[in-house]
Amino acid sequence: MSGKSKVVLTDYVWDNLDQENEILGEICEIIAMQTKSPDEFIEEASDCEALLNTYAGPITREHMEKMSNCKIIARYGIGVDTIDLDAATDCGIIVTNNPTYCIEEVAEHTMALLLSTARKVSFYDRSVRNGKWEVPPGKPIFRLSGSTLGLIGFGNIARMVAERAVSFGMKILFSDPFVEDGQFDIPAKKVELEELYKDSDYISVHPPLIDETRGMVNDSAFDLMKSSVYLVNCSRGPIIETDALVKALDNGKIAGCALDTTDPEPLPNSHPLRNRENVIINPHAAWYSEESMVGLQKGAPNEVKRVLSGEWPINLVNRQVKESNRAGLS
Fold first, then answer.
1. Per-residue pLDDT averaged across 110-126, rounded?
2. What is the CATH architecture assignment of 5-101+290-323?
3. I need a surface site. Which of 3, 46, 92, 213 has the fewest CB within 10 A?
4. pLDDT for residue 1
5. What is the pTM of this model?
6. H-type helices in 145-192, by residue range?
7. 284: annotated active-site residue
8. pLDDT of res. 111
9. If 0-12 CB within 10 Å is exposed, 13-18 middle and 19+ buried, where does residue 71 land?
10. CATH code for 103-281?
11. Residue 325 pLDDT > 90, yes or no?
12. DSSP β-ladder status, 50-53 and 5-9
């Protein structure tokens, strides 16, 4: 290892590791792997000082206890639902994420899906491709201006969605226990979740995936919604209870949905959400742009560099780990 710190990269979806080598090459030996689960990388990572992680998970207490030298697990993406944060804290391992690299992209994609449902863009495209040239099959279509968009969660991405939706003349409701009404200079009204379900013409899902939000959009939620509502999810698939969504669509409790994230992911070819005229499904692509790829690839390696250089990272997720400071950071 030539005195360099060992860094294991569990998996990646880009063409080269130029960014990683530029950022870490002088101080680290990067072991790049393409794995899908910790069982495939844990032997190599048992003596690492840092772990770079994209999708391979879930990383559990059992895995972290085998990485006694590891100071940091740095996720390339935003979500950390694949990492046991309590276990990481107990093991003295810092966990970081990359919370800002694709905010614009996900907000834009959310609006694209919302507009596609509202204007039946995907439906008409399929219809024309099948040799038809007629408007009536897409009816009814309603004007977006004056309609109500309900945002579940009001974090960075949701607020960007709100700003864009306001420019279309939409009224904005949001439900978020961590945001006060009027906290941000955005014309949006805070309401209880039940009121949001009842009053929204479009609902967009934006909370992080944690125990409290897993399956929160369920049978009870669909019972409260308008039968004309469209549901958009560019957050995490398991926030929506898939079986409940299928039943709501089957029973006409909602008009349709547009999903960039699903549960499971990817959806099997035979899954009942596929091949419905009122359902749009994308392959978890909302995060992507050429610009976001640069931010994605730089974020995690820079956090590793900070920690291995004796500094605290910028995007520390498990803040309680500071109490033990096993890494001896200043």
1. 97
2. 3-Layer(aba) Sandwich (3.40)
3. 3
4. 45
5. 0.89
6. 156-167
7. yes
8. 98
9. buried
10. 3.40.50.720
11. no
12. parallel
Please report which confidence band the pLDDT of residue 239 belongs to, taking 50, 70 and 90 as the band edges.
very high
SS3 254: coil
Domain regions of the chain by residue span: 5-101+290-323, 103-281
Enumerate the β-bridge partners of residue 5.
Answer: 28
Q: For 57, what's the count of Cα atoms within 13 Å in the CB-facing half-sphere?
A: 22
DSSP reduced 3-state for 149: strand
Q: Write out the two tokens for 200.
A: 């929204």
Q: Which of 75, 206, 236, 306 is catalytic?
A: 236
pLDDT of residue 327: 78
236 included as an active-site residue: yes
Can you give the pLDDT at residue 43? 97
> Annotated catalytic residue: which of 62, 194, 265, 291?
265
Cα distance between residue 161 and residue 154, in whole Å: 9
Amino acid at 303: E
Provide φ and ψ at 94, rounded to 5°: -75, 135
CB 308 within 8 A of CB 28: yes
pLDDT reported for residue 2: 61
